[in-house]
Amino acid sequence: YGTSGYLEVKPINKRASGQAFEVILKPQSPVSDVAHNLPTPPKRDISLEEIKKKLEAADERRRYQEAQVLRALAEKREHERDVLLKAMEENSNFSKMAEEKLQMKMGQIKENREALMAAMIERLQEKGRRGDQRESTKGEGEG
Question: Where is this region: Disordered (predicted)?
C-alpha cells in the first residue's frame, strides 16, 4: 500500500470480515533525529514581581469583563423598562380612546333619544290640538 516517513504499511491476507494490515516502523535516520530533537529555549526564572504583574493584569481583565457584563445587564434592564413604559402608555392611550368613543356614542344615543321623545311629544300635542279643535267645533255646532 505504501510508505510514509517512519512507517510502512503492508496488506496481509484479506479476510471475510475486512482487511488486515501489518504496520512496520522504520528506524530513525540520523537526519530525522536532529529535526525532532531541537534544543528548547532555556526557561528563564520568573520573578515574584513578574508574577504579581501578571496577576494584576489578569485581575484587571476580570474586572473589565465584569464591568462589561454589568453594563450589558443595565442596558437590558433599561430596554425592558422602556418597553414596559411604552406598553403601559399605549394601553392607557387605548383606554382613553375607547372611553372617548364610548362617551361620544352615549352622547349620540342620548341626543337621538331626546329628539325622538321631542318628536313623539310634538305629535301627541298636535293630536291633542286637533282633538281640542274638533271638540270646540262640535260645541259650536250644537249651540
Answer: 124-143
